[in-house]
Design goal:
This protein has a domain of about 200 residues. The chain has about 425 residues and is mainly alpha-helical. A hairpin with a 4-residue loop joins strand 2 and strand 3. A three-stranded antiparallel β-sheet has the order 1-2-3. It is globular. The chain is about 75% helix and about 5% strand. It is built from 14 helices and three strands.
Length: about 425
């Protein structure tokens, strides 16, 4: 009887703790539901995409990557939960410090970082022996700092020297440090920042001038790709290109090669971008309208980065165009809910912070899906909350936690306003 009583009291205590935890979970309920949906999709897609790879690398243990993904998801949800409990005004105070920390990290990564896939984008974290892509931290820090600057300079926002240049400078510096190793991330980050500036009442003329300047290197890359394709007649030219891309600034050859592959396609080399895109197209074609069913993908055995950059292709193959459209719908609803937070937030910093972070996640998702269906050149960006976990997954969760922090405080303000009206 005594043991039964202890078990009963323990169960009641655990139930109370769970209810207490749930009662402290505030913010937009729809965004919370979308996070749960995307993480469930991630579990299914990652488990399917990594089955053969795990069997090969871990002697038949096909669940190893699934357990890793579960661990990242649990850690990510905890990050969201604790980040959303923090008053979003704290992030305004931390924004400048985080931004100043991100710059030397990017500089160090550029010259001394871990090199993977011909680019130096990672640093190895001590103790846990895990790599971190510093651009993920820098992107988060930049949007926090940019939201702070735009909110503080509303009185002079139309002035080029007093308003626009101080806002543009951190964007240019951050993108310039990211671009040599990861041009696509730098371009997407710059586009997201310009969009936030436009909504923040920055002069449209100043933004258009900036876009015009940014288009110059892009036009150069397209022109170089066209010219090189006309001259590339022999296999020796391909070998020379591959060798030259091994140096840091030889990444220019990689960028030109990606543009060339996007415009003309390329040989069926397993390491080429065109090969990845072709395999993604095969996966989409196999999927049809309703897909081949969960776990029945065959393209995962041939598609490089099937669990990461091209996971959307595996989703379409297994769940069809219906499944692919559903994923797009989730991101659109996420963006819509964040726009609602922006419109309801009475303070400029919170409004710009929620909107800026939602823009970068939505644009990243669109870019990933567009690459899969060959609407954009290969970028190397992941599908937020769906691709296999890593530090990118954790920083995405932190961004969502900050958005929910703004939402939580908006709800508290609206609750107080309603209570005063009743009195």
């Amino acid at each position: 009887m005594e043991a039964t009583r202890d078990i009963g009291l323990g169960g009641l205590k655990n139930t109370f703790n769970a209810n207490n935890l749930i009662s402290k979970t505030k913010g937009d309920r729809v965004i919370w539901a979308l996070v749960v949906l995307l993480t469930l999709v991630s579990l299914l897609a990652v488990y399917s995409a990594t089955g053969s790879l795990a069997y090969k690398n871990y002697r038949g243990n096909t669940e190893i990557y699934l357990f890793k993904q579960i661990a990242f998801i649990l850690a990510g949800i905890m990050v969201i939960y604790f980040a959303h409990l923090v008053n979003y005004t704290f992030y305004s105070k931390a924004a400048k410090i985080a931004f100043l920390i991100s710059l030397p990290l990017l500089f160090y990564t550029l010259f001394f970082g871990v090199k993977m896939n011909e680019g130096s984008r990672w640093i190895r974290l001590p103790l846990i022996n895990m790599t971190m892509q510093t651009s993920d931290f820098a992107r988060l820090a930049l949007f926090m700092y940019l939201a702070r600057l735009i909110s503080k300079k509303q009185d002079v926002i139309k002035d080029f020297k007093k308003g626009y240049l101080p806002i543009l400078a951190p964007v240019v510096v951050t993108c310039a440090l990211i671009a040599p190793a990861n041009l696509s991330t730098a371009l997407l980050l710059g586009a997201s920042c310009l969009l936030l500036m436009f909504i923040g009442r920055v002069s449209t003329r100043h933004i258009l001038i900036t876009i015009g300047v940014a288009l110059i290197p892009i036009v150069f890359l397209i022109s170089a790709a066209v010219i090189r394709h006309g001259k590339e007649k022999s296999e020796d030219a391909v070998v020379a290109t591959t060798k030259s891309s091994s140096t840091l600034f030889g990444r220019v050859d990689t960028w030109i090669g990606r543009m060339e592959s996007f415009i003309y396609g390329s040989r069926d080399d397993i390491n080429s971008d065109a090969y990845q895109v072709n395999q993604a197209k095969i996966a989409i074609a196999k999927g049809g309208v309703f897909g081949v069913g969960p776990g029945n993908s065959t393209t995962r055995d041939y598609l490089p980065q099937a669990y990461n950059d091209f996971i959307y292709a595996i989703i379409i193959e297994e769940y069809g165009l219906v499944g692919g459209a559903f994923i797009m719908f989730i991101y659109l609803v996420f963006l819509y809910r964040c726009i609602r937070i922006y419109k309801r937030c009475p303070f400029a910093f919170g409004a710009f912070l929620a909107l800026g972070l939602s823009f970068t996640l939505a644009i990243q998702a669109v870019a990933n899906m567009a690459v899969t269906v060959n609407l954009f050149p290969v970028t190397g960006v992941t599908l937020p909350l769906v691709s296999m976990g890593g530090t990118s997954f954790i920083f995405t969760c932190l961004a969502i936690g900050i958005i929910l922090s703004v939402s939580r405080n908006v709800e508290q303000l609206e609750g107080k306003a309603a209570a005063e009206v009743v009195k």
